[in-house]
Structures are given as C-alpha cells and as structure tokens.
Design goal:
The chain is α/β, with parallel strands linked by helices. The protein has 3 helices and 4 strands. α1 runs parallel beside α2. The longest helix is centred in the N-terminal third of the chain and has 12 residues.
Length: 89
C-alpha cells in the first residue's frame, strides 16, 4: 500500500544536519506506514551516505538516492519522481 505522504529532501555535505532532519521526521506522530522519507544526496563528499544508510537500515520507509549532477532542483526532482505518496512535501 502506498504511503499517504512522501517527504523529499535534498542534501549536500550536511551529514550532521541531515541526521537531525531525519530524526525529526522519525519522531512525528504519523504511523511509519503513512509516510516515506526520500533523501537525495546531491553528490556529497562527506559522510552523508553512511549517515543516511544507518537510518535506512532501521527504517524501511526511508529511501536513499544519489544524484551525481550538481543542483538541488535536479536532486529534488529525482526524489519527486521516486515518490509513491498521495502528497509530496
């Protein structure tokens, strides 16, 4: 069953901040089946990938995508194309 909400966030070299953002989403009162979180890494060179993947290992509704081309619009659009929810935030 598709989630009600898809939350798309693009990130670039902000491993410490993306962890806080993901944790914030995880602490919302929605049931995990009601939302998916799509994190699009826009070619980060820090440890963004392992930070996000650690969350993915514990939360089936968190999806990690990688976008090699620079530009936050490209990254967000990639996330929106992946989204399965009725609503996208």
């Amino acid at each position: 069953m598709a989630p009600l909400f898809s939350i798309v966030t693009a990130t670039y070299n902000r491993a410490e901040l993306i962890a806080i953002a993901i944790q914030s989403v995880c602490e919302q009162t929605l049931n995990t089946a009601e939302f998916e979180l799509i994190v699009v890494d826009n070619n980060s060179t820090d440890n963004t990938r392992p930070v996000v993947n650690a969350f993915c290992a514990n939360h089936a509704n968190i999806i990690y995508l990688f976008e090699a081309e620079p530009g936050s619009s490209l990254a967000r659009n990639k996330g929106c194309r992946q989204a399965q929810g009725k609503y996208i935030a």
